[in-house]
Hints:
Layout: H1 2-9, H2 12-46, E1 57-58, H3 67-72, E2 77-78, H4 80-101
Antiparallel strand pairs: 1-2
Helix pairs in contact: 2-4
Amino acid sequence: MIEEFKKFIMRGNVLDMAVGIIIGAAFGxxxxxxxxxxxxxxxxxxxxxxxxxxxxxxxxxxxxxxxxEARDAGLPVxxxxxxxxxxxxxxxxxxxxxxxIK
Length: 102
């Protein structure tokens, strides 16, 4: 059984898939950093000094000035700014995959 497993693992398709997953994870981190650190700050500046990562809707009656403060207090929040960043991440990765396949 171990010998069969070794043969399975050493097949070209499995190794190619493993390399693709590792590179894809690294690419995802690069895109996330690009969106959070380079792309969204200028967009936020153009839209009136908005920090997208700190946009949230507080669902409780307890006030909170920042998302971190609300989360530390355990308040229920909808962190739509983080969601917007994730959507932009996804669109960039999807476009890059589209270009790679095309």
